[in-house]
Amino acid sequence: MRHHKITEIARKVTDMKHILSISLGSASRDKSVPKEILGEEFLIERRGTEEDEGGPPRD
After folding, report:
1. Which residues have C-beta within 8 Å of that of residue 19, sequence separation ≥ 6?
2. CA 58 to mean position of chain CA atoms
């Protein structure tokens, strides 16, 4: 029974569309949220790259 549930979850995840935002900011603020929009499954994700150093100074 457990194998069936894992297979079902894996199928659902692979059928999802993935929206990814890549930020130059901190990875500590990363988030991942599954969302249903107009009957379609999406995985909305934010990933930080820790690349703040070396850029122009912030005011």
Report:
1. 42, 43, 44, 45
2. 27
For the chain, the domain total comes to 1
Q: Confirm whether pTM is higher than 0.85.
A: no
Tens-place pLDDT, residues 20-40: 999 999 999 999 999 999 999
Tell me whether residue 54 is in a domain: no
- Whole-number Cα distances in Å, 50 to 26, 33, 46, 55: 5, 21, 13, 12
Residue 25 near residue 52, CB atoms below 8 Å: yes
Query: Does 55 map to a domain?
Result: no
Domain hosting 29: range is 2-48
